[in-house]
Amino acid sequence: MLPHNKGLQPCPQGHCPSRNSSKDTGIADRMVDEIWQQFYAESEGDEPQAASAIPSKCSLHYTYMMEPDSLPAELILTHPRQTLGNIQLDWTPQPGNYLDFEGQTYAVLERRHRYRLKSGRYRLHKIALYVQSAQRPTEKSLIAGRWVVGDASCCFNAHSELIRCAVNPEGPCESCRFYEPSHSQLQS
Fold it and tell me: Where are the residues of the annotated region Disordered (predicted)?
């Protein structure tokens, strides 16, 4: 039996028998084993890739949800345009996130996925991160579930993960002479 027991995901379309129901357990196990064997054959014996993939149990869709231990990423500086290097990440950076590389902090501006054709299918090969040198902001505000740079109560704040505001982009907000409470702050 192949190592698929950990973290098995249910079929999102609902076609698969439930692994928790006692009468369907044998059928579900056989279906999962068949999918694993097919995936293992397609991955050309690539054991780390096969072990990190979790197929859904749905024999109609054969969807594979990749759970990589680490993502290969290429860091590309936007200005001047140059490659900084390749790193392995254990998280998926979004634009607006900060990461440290060789003692320097960079802000992620853009993320692009690079795919390779392997065994007749396109598979994620690595992620290209377009970054710029930055300092981690000391002032942050939480708005609608996301962190923005600076004091979000100011009407000039951009409400962005990358830019503080137009009048004082470098900050700090605390002693800014242009500070004006936003209209929503005045009403409350």
Answer: 1-24
